[in-house]
Design a protein that fits this description.
seven-stranded mixed sheet; binds flavin-adenine dinucleotide; FAD/NAD(P)-binding domain; 31% helix; alpha/beta; 2 domains; 13 helices
Protein backbone atom coordinates (compact mmCIF):
# COMPACT_ATOMS: atom_id res chain seq x y z
CA UNK A 1 0.00 0.00 0.00
CA UNK A 2 1.56 3.29 -1.08
CA UNK A 3 0.65 6.33 1.05
CA UNK A 4 -0.99 9.15 -0.96
CA UNK A 5 1.28 12.20 -0.96
CA UNK A 6 0.03 15.80 -0.87
CA UNK A 7 2.61 18.30 -2.15
CA UNK A 8 2.22 22.07 -1.78
CA UNK A 9 3.99 23.97 -4.60
CA UNK A 10 4.61 23.12 -8.25
CA UNK A 11 8.12 24.57 -8.47
CA UNK A 12 11.06 22.43 -9.51
CA UNK A 13 11.33 20.76 -6.10
CA UNK A 14 7.66 19.80 -5.81
CA UNK A 15 7.38 18.63 -9.40
CA UNK A 16 10.54 16.51 -9.24
CA UNK A 17 9.16 14.85 -6.13
CA UNK A 18 5.79 14.31 -7.83
CA UNK A 19 7.43 12.76 -10.87
CA UNK A 20 9.68 10.39 -8.87
CA UNK A 21 6.70 9.34 -6.75
CA UNK A 22 4.67 8.73 -9.91
CA UNK A 23 7.47 6.60 -11.35
CA UNK A 24 7.31 4.49 -8.17
CA UNK A 25 3.53 4.15 -8.25
CA UNK A 26 2.52 6.55 -5.47
CA UNK A 27 -0.76 8.48 -5.73
CA UNK A 28 0.26 12.15 -5.65
CA UNK A 29 -1.48 15.53 -5.77
CA UNK A 30 0.25 18.90 -6.10
CA UNK A 31 -1.55 22.07 -4.97
CA UNK A 32 -0.18 25.21 -6.63
CA UNK A 33 -1.12 28.84 -5.94
CA UNK A 34 -0.58 30.04 -9.52
CA UNK A 35 -3.68 29.79 -11.70
CA UNK A 36 -1.91 28.02 -14.61
CA UNK A 37 1.54 26.89 -15.75
CA UNK A 38 1.89 29.98 -17.94
CA UNK A 39 0.45 32.64 -15.64
CA UNK A 40 3.86 34.05 -14.71
CA UNK A 41 7.27 34.32 -16.37
CA UNK A 42 9.26 31.56 -14.73
CA UNK A 43 12.52 33.48 -14.39
CA UNK A 44 15.75 33.05 -16.20
CA UNK A 45 18.19 30.37 -17.09
CA UNK A 46 19.40 27.70 -14.72
CA UNK A 47 22.57 25.69 -15.02
CA UNK A 48 21.70 22.15 -14.10
CA UNK A 49 24.69 20.51 -12.47
CA UNK A 50 25.94 17.00 -13.04
CA UNK A 51 26.35 16.50 -9.26
CA UNK A 52 22.79 17.41 -8.15
CA UNK A 53 20.15 18.66 -10.65
CA UNK A 54 21.04 16.08 -13.28
CA UNK A 55 21.02 13.28 -10.70
CA UNK A 56 17.46 14.32 -9.85
CA UNK A 57 16.44 14.19 -13.51
CA UNK A 58 18.02 10.74 -13.74
CA UNK A 59 15.88 9.59 -10.80
CA UNK A 60 12.86 11.11 -12.55
CA UNK A 61 13.67 9.11 -15.71
CA UNK A 62 13.97 12.28 -17.77
CA UNK A 63 17.64 12.41 -18.75
CA UNK A 64 16.83 11.32 -22.32
CA UNK A 65 14.54 14.35 -22.75
CA UNK A 66 16.84 16.82 -20.95
CA UNK A 67 19.45 17.42 -23.73
CA UNK A 68 16.73 18.86 -25.99
CA UNK A 69 16.28 21.71 -23.48
CA UNK A 70 19.96 22.65 -23.27
CA UNK A 71 20.82 25.94 -24.92
CA UNK A 72 24.08 25.57 -26.78
CA UNK A 73 26.96 27.89 -26.04
CA UNK A 74 25.47 29.36 -22.86
CA UNK A 75 28.32 28.16 -20.61
CA UNK A 76 30.54 30.81 -22.21
CA UNK A 77 31.54 33.60 -19.85
CA UNK A 78 32.93 37.13 -20.14
CA UNK A 79 34.16 39.40 -17.36
CA UNK A 80 34.34 43.12 -18.09
CA UNK A 81 35.34 46.16 -16.10
CA UNK A 82 33.09 49.23 -15.82
CA UNK A 83 34.63 50.68 -18.99
CA UNK A 84 33.55 47.61 -20.94
CA UNK A 85 37.13 46.33 -21.18
CA UNK A 86 37.33 42.55 -21.46
CA UNK A 87 39.24 41.10 -18.49
CA UNK A 88 38.51 37.42 -19.04
CA UNK A 89 36.72 35.25 -21.57
CA UNK A 90 35.87 31.56 -21.63
CA UNK A 91 34.20 29.90 -24.58
CA UNK A 92 31.71 27.04 -24.31
CA UNK A 93 33.20 23.94 -25.91
CA UNK A 94 30.19 21.82 -24.93
CA UNK A 95 32.08 19.78 -22.32
CA UNK A 96 31.11 21.75 -19.18
CA UNK A 97 29.14 20.08 -16.40
CA UNK A 98 26.64 22.94 -16.01
CA UNK A 99 24.36 22.96 -19.08
CA UNK A 100 21.97 25.91 -19.18
CA UNK A 101 18.21 25.57 -19.68
CA UNK A 102 15.23 27.88 -19.43
CA UNK A 103 13.54 27.38 -16.06
CA UNK A 104 10.07 27.44 -17.65
CA UNK A 105 10.99 24.68 -20.12
CA UNK A 106 12.41 22.49 -17.37
CA UNK A 107 9.26 22.97 -15.33
CA UNK A 108 7.17 22.06 -18.38
CA UNK A 109 9.22 18.89 -18.93
CA UNK A 110 8.31 17.79 -15.41
CA UNK A 111 4.66 18.80 -15.81
CA UNK A 112 4.37 16.83 -19.06
CA UNK A 113 5.74 13.77 -17.27
CA UNK A 114 2.87 13.73 -14.75
CA UNK A 115 -0.61 12.31 -15.27
CA UNK A 116 -3.22 14.89 -16.30
CA UNK A 117 -4.79 16.55 -13.27
CA UNK A 118 -1.91 15.85 -10.86
CA UNK A 119 -1.42 19.59 -10.32
CA UNK A 120 -4.39 21.51 -8.91
CA UNK A 121 -3.74 25.05 -10.17
CA UNK A 122 -5.14 28.10 -8.37
CA UNK A 123 -4.94 26.39 -4.96
CA UNK A 124 -3.18 28.86 -2.69
CA UNK A 125 -2.58 27.54 0.80
CA UNK A 126 -3.46 29.99 3.56
CA UNK A 127 -2.78 27.76 6.57
CA UNK A 128 -1.97 24.30 7.89
CA UNK A 129 -2.64 22.55 11.19
CA UNK A 130 -2.11 19.20 12.86
CA UNK A 131 -5.29 17.22 13.58
CA UNK A 132 -5.91 15.09 16.67
CA UNK A 133 -5.16 11.91 14.69
CA UNK A 134 -1.71 13.30 13.72
CA UNK A 135 -2.59 13.97 10.10
CA UNK A 136 -2.38 17.50 8.69
CA UNK A 137 -5.14 19.72 7.39
CA UNK A 138 -4.39 22.22 4.64
CA UNK A 139 -6.64 25.25 4.16
CA UNK A 140 -6.80 27.12 0.86
CA UNK A 141 -7.60 30.80 0.45
CA UNK A 142 -11.08 29.99 -0.87
CA UNK A 143 -11.81 28.32 2.49
CA UNK A 144 -11.69 24.74 1.20
CA UNK A 145 -9.54 22.13 2.98
CA UNK A 146 -7.81 18.81 2.37
CA UNK A 147 -6.42 16.37 4.93
CA UNK A 148 -3.04 14.86 4.08
CA UNK A 149 -1.71 11.46 5.12
CA UNK A 150 1.73 12.70 4.09
CA UNK A 151 2.20 16.44 3.52
CA UNK A 152 5.26 17.91 1.76
CA UNK A 153 5.94 21.65 1.72
CA UNK A 154 7.59 22.52 -1.59
CA UNK A 155 6.16 26.03 -1.43
CA UNK A 156 9.36 28.02 -1.46
CA UNK A 157 10.75 30.84 0.67
CA UNK A 158 7.51 31.82 2.42
CA UNK A 159 6.27 28.27 2.98
CA UNK A 160 2.91 27.83 4.72
CA UNK A 161 3.86 24.25 5.62
CA UNK A 162 7.14 25.14 7.40
CA UNK A 163 5.42 26.36 10.63
CA UNK A 164 4.30 22.75 11.26
CA UNK A 165 7.98 21.90 11.72
CA UNK A 166 9.90 24.96 12.84
CA UNK A 167 9.55 28.63 13.82
CA UNK A 168 12.42 29.91 11.68
CA UNK A 169 11.62 32.70 9.21
CA UNK A 170 13.66 34.07 6.29
CA UNK A 171 15.85 37.11 6.93
CA UNK A 172 17.14 39.66 4.44
CA UNK A 173 20.86 39.07 3.75
CA UNK A 174 21.72 42.63 2.64
CA UNK A 175 21.97 42.01 -1.10
CA UNK A 176 19.46 42.21 -3.93
CA UNK A 177 19.13 41.96 -7.68
CA UNK A 178 17.25 44.38 -9.88
CA UNK A 179 16.04 42.34 -12.83
CA UNK A 180 15.72 43.57 -16.42
CA UNK A 181 15.20 42.07 -19.89
CA UNK A 182 16.25 43.23 -23.37
CA UNK A 183 14.46 41.50 -26.24
CA UNK A 184 15.68 41.12 -29.87
CA UNK A 185 19.04 42.25 -28.57
CA UNK A 186 21.19 41.36 -31.60
CA UNK A 187 19.15 43.69 -33.77
CA UNK A 188 17.88 46.30 -31.31
CA UNK A 189 20.79 46.45 -28.82
CA UNK A 190 23.74 45.16 -30.86
CA UNK A 191 26.53 46.68 -28.74
CA UNK A 192 25.05 45.24 -25.55
CA UNK A 193 24.50 41.84 -27.18
CA UNK A 194 28.16 41.85 -28.20
CA UNK A 195 29.28 42.83 -24.70
CA UNK A 196 27.27 39.97 -23.15
CA UNK A 197 28.43 37.48 -25.78
CA UNK A 198 27.02 33.98 -26.21
CA UNK A 199 26.63 33.06 -22.54
CA UNK A 200 26.97 35.10 -19.37
CA UNK A 201 28.69 38.39 -18.63
CA UNK A 202 29.71 40.05 -15.37
CA UNK A 203 30.74 43.71 -15.27
CA UNK A 204 32.45 44.74 -12.06
CA UNK A 205 33.15 48.30 -10.98
CA UNK A 206 35.38 49.77 -8.34
CA UNK A 207 32.99 48.83 -5.51
CA UNK A 208 32.03 45.22 -4.67
CA UNK A 209 28.58 46.61 -3.78
CA UNK A 210 27.57 47.10 -7.41
CA UNK A 211 27.85 44.83 -10.45
CA UNK A 212 25.90 44.08 -13.59
CA UNK A 213 25.34 40.44 -14.52
CA UNK A 214 23.65 39.32 -17.71
CA UNK A 215 22.88 36.13 -19.56
CA UNK A 216 21.88 35.38 -23.11
CA UNK A 217 18.68 33.37 -22.89
CA UNK A 218 16.96 31.57 -25.76
CA UNK A 219 16.74 33.53 -28.98
CA UNK A 220 18.03 37.08 -28.70
CA UNK A 221 16.86 37.76 -25.14
CA UNK A 222 19.28 39.24 -22.64
CA UNK A 223 18.36 38.86 -18.97
CA UNK A 224 20.19 41.03 -16.45
CA UNK A 225 20.59 40.96 -12.70
CA UNK A 226 21.92 44.29 -11.48
CA UNK A 227 23.48 43.39 -8.14
CA UNK A 228 23.50 45.65 -5.06
CA UNK A 229 24.64 45.44 -1.46
CA UNK A 230 22.17 47.80 0.21
CA UNK A 231 19.63 47.83 3.03
CA UNK A 232 15.90 47.32 2.40
CA UNK A 233 15.42 50.96 3.51
CA UNK A 234 17.74 52.09 0.71
CA UNK A 235 15.56 50.27 -1.85
CA UNK A 236 12.36 51.55 -0.23
CA UNK A 237 13.35 55.07 -1.33
CA UNK A 238 13.02 53.94 -4.97
CA UNK A 239 9.50 53.75 -6.40
CA UNK A 240 9.60 50.54 -8.45
CA UNK A 241 5.97 51.09 -9.48
CA UNK A 242 7.15 54.12 -11.47
CA UNK A 243 9.19 52.45 -14.24
CA UNK A 244 10.91 55.61 -15.50
CA UNK A 245 11.82 56.85 -12.02
CA UNK A 246 13.15 53.43 -10.98
CA UNK A 247 15.24 53.14 -14.16
CA UNK A 248 16.71 56.60 -13.58
CA UNK A 249 17.49 55.84 -9.92
CA UNK A 250 19.19 52.53 -10.68
CA UNK A 251 21.06 53.91 -13.71
CA UNK A 252 22.41 56.76 -11.54
CA UNK A 253 24.31 54.19 -9.51
CA UNK A 254 26.30 53.24 -12.61
CA UNK A 255 27.12 56.70 -13.96
CA UNK A 256 30.31 56.70 -16.03
CA UNK A 257 30.12 52.96 -16.81
CA UNK A 258 30.28 51.83 -20.46
CA UNK A 259 26.96 52.62 -22.17
CA UNK A 260 26.74 49.17 -23.80
CA UNK A 261 26.71 47.73 -20.26
CA UNK A 262 24.38 50.27 -18.62
CA UNK A 263 21.97 49.82 -21.56
CA UNK A 264 20.93 46.65 -19.70
CA UNK A 265 19.25 49.13 -17.31
CA UNK A 266 18.44 52.18 -19.43
CA UNK A 267 17.10 50.29 -22.47
CA UNK A 268 15.22 47.59 -20.56
CA UNK A 269 12.10 46.29 -22.32
CA UNK A 270 10.42 45.38 -19.04
CA UNK A 271 9.89 47.39 -15.84
CA UNK A 272 12.69 46.89 -13.35
CA UNK A 273 11.88 44.26 -10.72
CA UNK A 274 13.51 44.27 -7.28
CA UNK A 275 14.50 40.84 -5.96
CA UNK A 276 15.84 41.08 -2.40
CA UNK A 277 17.74 38.02 -1.15
CA UNK A 278 16.57 36.17 1.94
CA UNK A 279 17.98 33.23 3.84
CA UNK A 280 16.98 30.81 6.57
CA UNK A 281 19.53 30.33 9.36
CA UNK A 282 22.40 28.31 7.94
CA UNK A 283 22.34 24.74 9.21
CA UNK A 284 18.97 24.95 10.97
CA UNK A 285 17.20 21.62 11.59
CA UNK A 286 13.89 20.52 13.05
CA UNK A 287 12.72 17.58 15.12
CA UNK A 288 10.91 14.88 13.17
CA UNK A 289 7.15 15.56 13.07
CA UNK A 290 5.12 12.58 11.81
CA UNK A 291 3.55 12.90 8.37
CA UNK A 292 5.13 16.15 7.18
CA UNK A 293 8.40 17.39 5.69
CA UNK A 294 9.85 20.09 3.44
CA UNK A 295 11.92 20.23 0.22
CA UNK A 296 13.87 23.00 -1.51
CA UNK A 297 13.67 26.63 -0.45
CA UNK A 298 10.95 25.82 2.08
CA UNK A 299 13.57 23.74 3.92
CA UNK A 300 16.83 25.61 3.36
CA UNK A 301 16.42 28.94 1.56
CA UNK A 302 19.71 30.73 0.86
CA UNK A 303 20.65 33.85 -1.08
CA UNK A 304 21.11 32.91 -4.77
CA UNK A 305 24.34 30.94 -5.14
CA UNK A 306 23.61 28.94 -8.27
CA UNK A 307 22.55 25.83 -6.34
CA UNK A 308 19.00 26.45 -5.04
CA UNK A 309 16.98 25.00 -7.90
CA UNK A 310 19.41 22.12 -8.28
CA UNK A 311 19.14 21.31 -4.57
CA UNK A 312 15.34 21.58 -4.61
CA UNK A 313 15.27 19.01 -7.41
CA UNK A 314 17.70 16.72 -5.59
CA UNK A 315 15.62 16.99 -2.40
CA UNK A 316 12.50 16.06 -4.36
CA UNK A 317 14.21 13.11 -6.03
CA UNK A 318 15.75 11.80 -2.81
CA UNK A 319 12.51 12.10 -0.84
CA UNK A 320 10.66 10.20 -3.57
CA UNK A 321 13.35 7.51 -3.60
CA UNK A 322 13.36 7.26 0.20
CA UNK A 323 9.58 6.71 0.25
CA UNK A 324 9.92 4.02 -2.42
CA UNK A 325 12.76 2.36 -0.48
CA UNK A 326 10.73 2.13 2.78
CA UNK A 327 7.42 0.57 1.76
CA UNK A 328 4.83 0.91 4.53
CA UNK A 329 7.17 2.95 6.75
CA UNK A 330 6.75 6.62 5.93
CA UNK A 331 8.50 7.77 9.12
CA UNK A 332 11.65 5.77 8.34
CA UNK A 333 11.63 7.29 4.85
CA UNK A 334 11.22 10.86 6.14
CA UNK A 335 13.96 10.37 8.75
CA UNK A 336 16.38 9.01 6.13
CA UNK A 337 15.56 11.82 3.70
CA UNK A 338 15.88 14.60 6.31
CA UNK A 339 19.15 13.25 7.70
CA UNK A 340 20.85 13.43 4.29
CA UNK A 341 19.17 16.74 3.38
CA UNK A 342 20.25 18.42 6.65
CA UNK A 343 23.85 17.34 6.15
CA UNK A 344 23.79 18.59 2.55
CA UNK A 345 22.28 21.94 3.62
CA UNK A 346 24.99 22.44 6.25
CA UNK A 347 27.83 21.77 3.85
CA UNK A 348 29.38 25.04 2.69
CA UNK A 349 29.89 25.46 -1.04
CA UNK A 350 33.31 24.23 -2.12
CA UNK A 351 34.61 27.51 -3.57
CA UNK A 352 37.59 25.91 -5.26
CA UNK A 353 35.52 23.27 -7.01
CA UNK A 354 33.04 25.98 -8.04
CA UNK A 355 35.80 28.14 -9.54
CA UNK A 356 37.25 25.12 -11.30
CA UNK A 357 33.90 24.16 -12.81
CA UNK A 358 33.15 27.75 -13.90
CA UNK A 359 36.53 28.78 -15.22
CA UNK A 360 38.86 25.80 -15.34
CA UNK A 361 42.30 26.93 -14.22
CA UNK A 362 42.25 29.93 -16.55
CA UNK A 363 40.96 32.69 -14.31
CA UNK A 364 43.45 35.03 -12.64
CA UNK A 365 43.20 34.67 -8.81
CA UNK A 366 42.33 38.37 -8.37
CA UNK A 367 39.23 37.93 -10.54
CA UNK A 368 38.29 34.66 -8.85
CA UNK A 369 38.03 36.60 -5.57
CA UNK A 370 35.11 38.54 -7.05
CA UNK A 371 33.10 35.36 -7.50
CA UNK A 372 33.37 33.98 -4.02
CA UNK A 373 29.85 33.33 -2.77
CA UNK A 374 30.48 34.39 0.80
C1 LIG B 1 17.09 36.03 -8.56
C2 LIG B 1 17.33 34.58 -8.33
C3 LIG B 1 18.19 33.85 -9.16
C4 LIG B 1 18.41 32.49 -8.94
N1 LIG B 1 19.23 31.78 -9.79
C5 LIG B 1 19.44 30.47 -9.57
C6 LIG B 1 20.30 29.72 -10.44
O1 LIG B 1 20.87 30.25 -11.39
N2 LIG B 1 20.45 28.39 -10.19
C7 LIG B 1 19.82 27.76 -9.15
O2 LIG B 1 20.01 26.54 -8.98
N3 LIG B 1 19.01 28.45 -8.32
C8 LIG B 1 18.81 29.78 -8.50
N4 LIG B 1 18.00 30.47 -7.66
C9 LIG B 1 17.36 29.77 -6.53
C10 LIG B 1 16.13 29.02 -7.02
O3 LIG B 1 15.28 29.88 -7.74
C11 LIG B 1 15.36 28.39 -5.86
O4 LIG B 1 16.25 27.81 -4.94
C12 LIG B 1 14.40 27.32 -6.38
O5 LIG B 1 13.45 27.90 -7.23
C13 LIG B 1 13.71 26.61 -5.24
O6 LIG B 1 12.78 25.70 -5.78
P1 LIG B 1 11.51 25.27 -4.93
O7 LIG B 1 10.78 24.28 -5.78
O8 LIG B 1 11.96 24.86 -3.59
O9 LIG B 1 10.68 26.60 -4.72
P2 LIG B 1 10.05 27.60 -5.76
O10 LIG B 1 10.74 27.58 -7.06
O11 LIG B 1 9.93 28.92 -5.04
O12 LIG B 1 8.59 27.01 -6.01
C14 LIG B 1 7.60 27.12 -5.01
C15 LIG B 1 6.24 26.94 -5.66
O13 LIG B 1 5.26 26.97 -4.62
C16 LIG B 1 4.21 27.84 -4.99
N5 LIG B 1 3.67 28.41 -3.75
C17 LIG B 1 4.23 29.32 -2.93
N6 LIG B 1 3.43 29.60 -1.91
C18 LIG B 1 2.31 28.83 -2.07
C19 LIG B 1 1.12 28.67 -1.35
N7 LIG B 1 0.88 29.39 -0.21
N8 LIG B 1 0.18 27.79 -1.79
C20 LIG B 1 0.40 27.05 -2.92
N9 LIG B 1 1.53 27.19 -3.67
C21 LIG B 1 2.47 28.06 -3.24
C22 LIG B 1 4.88 28.91 -5.86
O14 LIG B 1 3.95 29.56 -6.69
C23 LIG B 1 5.88 28.06 -6.63
O15 LIG B 1 5.33 27.53 -7.80
C24 LIG B 1 17.76 31.84 -7.86
C25 LIG B 1 16.89 32.57 -7.01
C26 LIG B 1 16.69 33.91 -7.25
C27 LIG B 1 15.77 34.69 -6.31
Amino acid sequence: MRTPVTIIGAGLGGLTLARVLHVHGFPVTVHEAEPSPTSRMQGGMLDIHDYNGQLALEAAGLMDEFPALVLEGRQAMRILDQDGKLLFEKTDDGTGGRPEVQRGELRQLLLDALPEGTVRWGHKVSGTRTLADGRHEVTFDDGSTVVADLLVGADGAWSRVRPLLTDVVPEYVGTAFVETYLFDADTRHAATAKAVGGGSMVANGPSPERSINAHRESGETLHAYVAFTESLEWFAAIDFTDAAAATAAIAREFEGWAPEVTALITDADTPLVLRPHYTLPFGHRWERVPGVTLVGDAAHLTAPNGEGANLAMLDGAELGQALAAHPGDVEAALAAYEQAMFVRSETPIDEEALMESLFGDEIPPALAELFKTS
